[in-house]
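Lecture 7 notes: from sequence to structure.

We start with a single chain of 427 residues. Read the sequence below before looking at the structure.
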Amino acid sequence: MHAPSAPATDSRVSAPDRLRWTILALLFSITVINFIDRQTLSILAPKLKESFHFNSTEYGRIVACFQFGMMVAEFPMGMLMDRLGSRFGFSFAVLWWSLATGLHAFGRSVWTFGLLRFWMGTGECANYSGAMKVVTRWFPEKEITLAVGVFNGGSMIGSILAPPLIVALNQWFGWQMAFLVPSVFGVIWVICWRRVYHMSASQERSMPGSAATQAVSALALLRYRQTWALMLCRFLAGPVMQFFWYWMPDYLYNVRGMSLVAIGAFSWLPYLLGDAGSIGGGWAAGKLLSKGHAPARTRGITMTIGAICCLASLAVVAAPSVAWAIAIIGVVLFGHTFYSANMFASISDLFPPAAVGRVTGLTGLSGGLGGILFPLATGYLVDHYSYAPAFAIAAVLPLAGMCALFWLAPGLVPVRFSHAGSGANRP
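Now the structure, written as tokens:
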């Protein structure tokens, strides 16, 4: 099935419904696979820490290595998507990170796991820059936030599937197979992607508005307040979800006394609420936009709702039981995904489609930096104090990120690139 050539008007709107929703289904499924791969280490962390004698500080370093890989490769992967196209870019990135995932089966030390996590991060960062690029090409403006919510919801579905799947593989075949099996999923996905998505890089570049944006250098994007607003927002808000992905199994095991089997049976429940938040955030934004609300007001309303829900993180350590702790974490994840669907969609509010890959990469660069610092801080806090300060920090970061976004980009006024490529009309 071949993608139609770009028309002279809005190619996103004219794309056949069946094809574009099939493409969205593939973006959703690779996000699911991404987060199964990503969650494997955190689910097995209690076992690996006991087997290889890691403490929380060393585990935090392993997690930071993954985030460092994401940070250094975010912008190159965004450029790859913009320059060589989503078909090649996604194929390369998924095969690259799937190989790293499988090789985790041979890890034996902090350094080998850290190196493999770094490698894995250099590929997995392309998921969002690539998906954002594809969504802004194939969906009309009023549906972009919903499409973002759908593919971003794959992170929650992956996190729902990962605990029972990884624990079962560990129980039946050993922890090595828990890394090998998910790596095969990525290879299968690439085969499906290349059979469905045939739009070439030249076709993507020929779409309306692409030439002017391509003429603007990557460095030039850093000259605009809108870029820094998005980067600071993701720097602050991004590490919150990573905290729950990477540390929740360890918290439930070491603080709440759950067994690995019980974690596999119940720790997926908060992610179910998280998936509802991702879809709900996209749906709510679509409703507000369809009623005539401006993008800035829409993002302000939805992100405020999400940030308020995230404040529930303050109550996790005081929860009277494991069940209550899991329920409160679910409220936080609902709020964060409700928030993040609109945070990512605000990239398309501020920048034209041809720049979305690079701008998403830049936000991932800043998010990766936050993702390095927070795990290191968490490991230190857990070893020297408790989980309470980490949950408190996670509670307030999304609200701080939203404030930064609207402070640096008031009104979410979009960047306008000149056709001559000499710059943009800076608001």
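Strands lie at 416-417, 424-425. Keep this in mind for problem set 3.
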